[in-house]
Every structure is written in structure tokens, then in C-alpha cells.
Prior knowledge:
Order of helices and strands: EHEEHHE
Distance between the termini: 5 Å
Number of helices: 3
Strand content: 15-25%
Strand order of the largest sheet: 2-3-1-4
Radius of gyration: 14 Å
Number of strands: 4
Structural class: alpha+beta
Largest sheet: 4 strands, antiparallel
Amino acid sequence: IQGRAACRLWSARRREYGNDRFRRHTTGLFDKHGIRNVGYWTPFDQPERSNTLIYLVRHANRGQADLNWQAFGRDPIWKRIARESRNEGELLARPPERLYLKALEFSPLK
């Protein structure tokens, strides 16, 4: 993975709706703002499988990551989608967790 990878853990009150929002809107907006989609997963085991989305994205570098997230957060389309997501109550069970990753020299995925 060229650039800086970020792993995010996203816990939703309604995972199916969250997955749909990512599928239909979020991944495209990530691309628009320089946040490159690498992969999306759900845990295999319960109870996390019922409400957890884990995804890996990449940025050109750590500084660019901050700029990308700021631009994403200001995007009027994103603001509308986020607002609409809350029409039936809060979507997230807690704020997303984010870890920036640095590959080690022995890692096959860099």
C-alpha cells in the first residue's frame, strides 16, 4: 500500500443501513477527497458481526490524511447524507476509531 494506511472501526446501531450508506455514498465521497478505498470487512463472530464495519483506506501521507478528512467533513453532499442518516435516530453506537498504520519491513503488504 503506497502512502499512509488507516484502519477504521465503525460501530453502528443499524449496521445494514450503515453498509448501504457506505456502498451508495461514502466510498465515492472518499475517492472524491483523496481517501482511497482498500477494503471493507465485518467480523466473522458475534456479537461484533451484528454492528461492526472495519475498513482500510489510504492517503498519500499522514499530513494529507488530515486534509482529506477535513475536506470530506465539509463536503455539502456528505453533510446532507449524514443528516439524512440520523432521521431515524443516531446511526453510530460510538464515534469511529481510527489507527494510522506503518508497515513493518517483514510485512508482505506494504
